Every structure is written in structure tokens, then in C-alpha cells.
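Weekend entry, working from home. Most of the wet-lab plans are on hold until the incubator is repaired, so I used the time to fold the two sequences that have been sitting in the queue since the last round of cloning. Logging both here for the record. First:
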Amino acid sequence: MFSEKVYGLCKRIPKGKVSTYFEIAKALNCKAYRAVGNTLNKNPYKEVPCHRVVNNNGNVGGFALGTKKKIEMLRKEGVKIKNNKIENFEEVLF
């Protein structure tokens, strides 16, 4: 099932790192990055760190609990963010 594959890949992203919707879709051998985002928006599992998935350009992107909460969670893990964008994007990309 597509959603379970997305959640499985997302669980592999370590604290302090981020991945993108595009990279997750690519890892699944598809181009359905919007479907990845929709799947993560409906994430029912607390152990799936969907807040670690961001836009391909380094923007934080959306989050079911709101962008402010996503930024707060990423910052607690050491990810630097300025103006809703990951500052050291290439360094923290997983």
C-alpha cells in the first residue's frame, strides 16, 4: 500500500535531518510527490515524523498541526529555519 511505504520511508529520517516530498516519491519509483504530501497530512501514527518532510526548495511546507508547530518541532531537533525556510538545507537533507 502506497501510504504504508511513505510512512516507512519517513520513519527512517533521523532527528535533525529532513527529506522532501519529491525525494520520498523518487525512492518509491514514482513522481507522485503531491500524493506523498497528502498521505503525510493524514498520518495516523505518532512514531512517523512527518514534520521532517519539507518542500524541494527548502521551504518548510505545510503541516496538519500548522506551520508554526512544524517549525517548532524541527527547531527542537536542531534544524535552523529562517523565514519558513531551512537555512542549512543541503547539510540537513537526508
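Second, folded right after the first finished:
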Amino acid sequence: MVKKAQLFFDLKQFDQALDLLDKAMVLDSQDMQIYLLRADIRVWLGQYQKAINAILEAIEIFHDASNKTDLYLELADIYEEWEKYEKVFEALTATLHYDPSNEEALNRIWFCVELSEAYDESIDFHKKFLDDNPYSYLAWFNLGHAYVGKGLKADAVDAFEFVIAINESYEYAYKDCADVLLSMEEYDRAIDFYKTALSKTKPYKELYVKLGDAYNAKENYQKARYYYRKASNVDPYYDIAYNKLGLTYLIEDRAESAIPFLTKAVELNKENSNYTVDLAVA
């Protein structure tokens, strides 16, 4: 019956699917797939509260930690679809209560915290979580982002450095730590972290631009241009790199050298009025 209900769901015959699930429930209320499939159908119909109720009912029935983990992750999915990000945070933290090493939950928390701006809640949760799980690098990473959200930059840097101490290969921590250091005008440290990030991952255009920005802030325009060119080599249609490249020449009063790059940026993105203004100034 459950398999047949799944087929009806795939065929978008929702009433037939729900009827079969009701019958299957009478035969075996301990089949978790019934609750999950019912929730999926309700989500598809836009009936989010009914989908939530189906999962909450299952949570009351299934007590195994593995089942609880799966159900709370499903609950997080539904709340995310519903765009109730505070509830996503609650569901993901509940998941970690049953499975503290669950990487999916830890990876998703920072995203919903950013959207809900629940930085205080995230800081409180992760501090307590880290008391019991001090080597969870993802928890330190989430804590760092929560500190960034609150403008506590020095605390964020400390948290990201804990990430690196625990997991030296986690390249995102180097890049995000560098971003904070750049905003704190600690340019040399930021450059070191950006370069380490480059050594840990496949080079990508945004990272090259960040490095260029750090050198630009240090007024080392030649070095800044080197990395902006690197970004444009990775993506020849990356308008941001061409604009920034041109601006370094403009700062040095080398307008003739600036114009070709500023023109290229305008050609690639005609909708950006700032590019047009920069070209007009040159």
C-alpha cells in the first residue's frame, strides 16, 4: 500500500495516495515511511502545517535516536520550504541533540541563522554545544559566523582559528577568517589567510578578487592587479575583476591604462551604472 501510494504521489494523484496511506496506517502505524510520504504530499499541496503535524506525530511514536535524527531533518526541510527559518534552526538543533556529529545539520545551521538573523540564539546554542563537543570544527565555524552577524569581529576570528586548529584542510575557515580580518583592516593577516585558502582548494575567481582587494587596501596596486587578472583568467566574463583592475590604474592617475578595462566591464554588464560612471570619470 505504501509503495502504491508513492506511485500515486509520483502521478500527482494525491487523494488516492492519502487514502492508501490512511489504510496502511491502520495495518501498521509503526512504518515511518507512511508519515514521511504523507508529509511530502502535504508539502507538495502547500499544506505546510499538516505536513508538520505528520512529522510531529511520528516524533512522538519513534524513540530511536536514528529515527529522531531523520525526522527532525525532515522537519527542518519542511520549515525551510515554508520559509520559517527560526523553526528550521530549532529543528536542526534538535537533530544535534540526538546526533551531535550530524554534519548535514551543522552545515545547514549557519544558513538559516543568516536568513533569520538569530545570531544571539546561535551563539548561546553553539557555546553550550561546544562545552560537550569541543572538537566540532563545524560548530566553531557556525559560532564564528554568528559572531560576524553580531559585529563581534575579534571573537569571530578566534572561532575561525579554532576551526583551523581542529581541521587544517577546511578551506572555508581560512577564507571567512580573512574576510573578517580584511574588514578589520588587518591586511597582512588577511592576505596570509587568503593565500592559505588558495593552497587548500581549487582557485576560484572570487578568492582572487578578495586577495586583490586586500592588496588594493594596502595601496599595492601592482599586486592587486596581478590577482584581479588572475580572476579574469579564471572567468573571462567576470566584469567585477575588469572594473577593479581599471580602478587601480585610475587611482594612480593612469586613465589611459584604465579605460580599456573599465570599457570591458561596461560591455560585460551594461546594467551596472557604477561601471558607466567609472568609465566616464576616466
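Plan for Monday: verify the second prediction. The chain is about 80% helix and 0% strand.
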